[in-house]
Design brief:
Largest sheet: 9 strands, mixed
Radius of gyration: 23 Å
Number of helices: 1
Distance between the termini: 82 Å
Number of strands: 9
């Protein structure tokens, strides 16, 4: 009985110590963790481009066990609207003046592609990017061109391109505050409950 107990105890110890190694092998691996400063980014509402955004962007990319990649992005900054453009939630309500709201947002999605980082760092600050939108570019969809110098930062790490495989959720949430007003642009927030920013 002592020998059997000893063998059982030893086997249990092997399984106990091996399990974390297996779990770690199957866990996502963080391969990119960077930040960037973005200015001149057109912000889209339900009716058109209603504001010009400036923000700090945080990008994390995780290699998944199946070969795909989980991308998580967060945004902290401001959105500046101008007179005459549609409010973000109601097409018939126009903004009356220039005003700046705070912005906080997150989004997450899965991509497929070949991870091949270029000269851009995979960790730390990767630079400042001006997408080129100015207040005069704002308005209903189709009325103006926006973001003439847009940069897709994911191409720094997937230069041969990437796709969005089916079957994964892609949650996002962007919350804007101006004085006592709040507008939420979110994947699980219906338009009727989103609020609005009207100045």
């Amino acid at each position: 009985m002592k020998t059997l107990l000893g063998v059982t105890a030893a086997l249990f110890l092997v399984l106990l110590t091996a399990t974390p190694l297996v779990a770690r092998a199957q866990s996502p691996t963080l391969v990119v963790n960077v930040t960037a400063k973005v200015t001149g980014d057109a912000d889209s509402g339900y009716c058109g481009y209603w504001a010009v955004d400036s923000y700090k962007k945080h990008i994390q990319i995780w290699a998944l066990p199946n070969g795909d990649y989980q991308v998580s992005e967060s945004f902290v900054g401001t959105s500046t609207t101008t007179a005459g453009v549609p409010s973000p939630d109601v097409c018939t309500v126009l903004e009356s003046t220039t005003a700046t709201a705070s912005l906080q947002g997150t989004e997450s999605f899965v991509i497929s592609g070949t991870f091949a980082p270029s000269a851009t760092s995979t960790h730390g600050f990767i630079g400042s990017f001006d997408y080129g939108t100015v207040p005069g570019d704002l308005g209903p969809y189709g009325s103006h061109s926006v973001n003439p110098t847009y940069v897709d930062m994911l191409t720094f790490y997937f230069p041969s391109g990437f796709s969005y495989p089916a079957g994964y959720p892609s949650p996002f949430s962007f919350v804007y505050h101006y004085q006592s007003q709040t507008w939420t642009d979110g994947s699980n927030v219906p338009q009727a409950m989103a609020g609005n920013i009207v100045v």
